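Thread: "does anyone have the structure for this chain?"

Original post by V.I.:
We have the sequence but no experimental structure in hand. Need at least a predicted one for the grant figures.
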Amino acid sequence: MPCSRRQGMFFEPNILQVGSKLCYPDRYSSGHGSSTWTKTLSSPQDSTAAPYVFQDDPYLIPTSSVESHSFLLAKKSGENAAKFIINSYPKYFQKDIAEPHIPCLMPEYFEPQIEDVSEAALQERIKLRKVKASVDMFDQLLQAGTTVSLETTNSLLDLLCYYGNQEPSANYNFQQREQSEELEEATEADNEKSKTKAGHHLGVTWRTKNNAERIFALMPEKNAHSYCTMIRGMVKHQAPTQALNLYTVLLNNRLRADVYTFNSLIEATALVVNEKFEEKWNNILDLLKQMVTQNVKPNLQTFNTILKCLRRFYAFGKLPALQTLREMKAIGIEPSLATYHYVIQLFYQHESPSKGSSLIIYDIMNEVMGKRFSPRDPDDDMFFQSAMRVCSSLRDLELAYQVHGLLNTGDNWKLIGSDHRRNFYYSKFFNLLCFMEQIDVTLKWYKDLIPSVFFPHSQTMIDLLQALDVANRLDMVPQIWKDSKEYGHTFRNELKEEILMLMARDQHPPELQVAFADCAADIKSTYESQDARQTAPEWPASSLNYVAVLFLRAGRTQEAWKMLGLFRKHNKIPRAELLNEFLDSAKASSSPAQAIELVKLASAFSLPVCEGLTRRVMAEFTLTQEQREALGELTALTSDSSSDSDSDSDSDISEGK
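Reply from O.Q.:
Generated one for you, tokens below.
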């Protein structure tokens, strides 16, 4: 897979690949990084290399998904800052040193140049997207008695309806979204909620008697374009009822709507509240019949809008969705990836790997396999994410391979979406590999995908550990911990406990026990050290038990006995199995003093195993009279505390009666 593919870039170098040879053009365009892209594609891909977007600054190459997101935000922020400075002070950037000329590197002029009150000045302000200035100029023209042409007035309505009567945002269309690791495992439904249209994410809603409605009412004559613009603006900014009412006025004036307006009206019909799903569907069918009456041919967005609306109808929408697909193909409109995405969302809204799951995903894959897709809908980049989510829920590895094969067909990789969506896709894919594939194949995918394609989160590493456990390949656990640290999971307690549990659960050959002990010591240091950004994590009781037993089995007795002090320090209770292993170690080293210290620890926690430990010490160790007396006192204290607790519980029971 080429390095460029991993970044979802929508551009390529100007080269052609014929067979196994690369054909270079006579002249390269002066686009950014042309020669670098050529070298990248003409050389073998290094699966251990960082993604291309991060290779300009090796010192800052990220090692986790959080760092990569911060890197991309910082890079885009720098671009925006540079663009802001250039456009704020254009007089300092007049020298054009590029050959040929590169327009995007030159200042853009956002200030009006025409000062007088005229229609030309109004047109200039509309072109510059100055909402308030355009409205003010329009009002000045009316006050001066100047008639504004219908074409210019419609252009002003276009501006007002698109931006919802507000000034456009000056953030260069870049929204900073903080995506934590937990959000990477969010469901597709959550991702749909996070994807909002331009008007929605700015919180713009349609207000009655706004400038658009006022100017529309002042127009001496209105054509179909005027009505269509108003209708689409109302739907865009969440005023579906007003849009449907205005459409009635359009019909009364014997005008016809265009296909884009009908698409908005279909969306408005689905957004109307207090109507049953069946009523909404019948209203959508009425709109389609009106399109036929008005000789308006539907386009791809018409059917995609219908399918998108049917998702809100839940189970009722499944049959209409299939009817829509059949009608779409009957009139010769080729579905886009977004079309299939909407169908998948409708049929797998509450999917589970239980009985009764829909089989439509298999029909979809049979239909799209081997096809090359190009962007035709804004939601085309949602298909691969939703398809892989269904593969994961169905636990169908063969289907997942088909989806991945489609992704790597032609330029389909460009439609995988943003960095967040790509991580979601590959996380689901690798999760399925861990559960269903042979371990050697899984490890090959691990080498090829991580970290050159995506940065794994902690759950991905846990899935891999479980796959190694099933395949009896625990010898790789220390390497997985080393990789996890590189990917920023040093302080993920769930991951550390999983690693320690796998290493401490069973006995292993001496060489492997030594490697496990080194790994345990490294994990132990993460609980004792303090990161600059956070406090040292608290020791879980299970981790203390695992580290201690790993030290014992590797012969690191002194470090293991130091772990017992941590149980007291952190007020954690050791397991009976661990105490028995410590007693075996004390017996092997013929150290009755250590054995007595062990009994003291068990007595301090009033553990039931204390009595059994005492009997073992008395029977298996050579003790002095003083040591025997000390053991006797510990046994008496333990029995007294046990009897006190029993009497307390008996009194509680009698009081309850």
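V.I.: this helps a lot. The first strand starts at residue 16 and ends at 18.
O.Q.: and The two ends are 74 Å apart (CA to CA).
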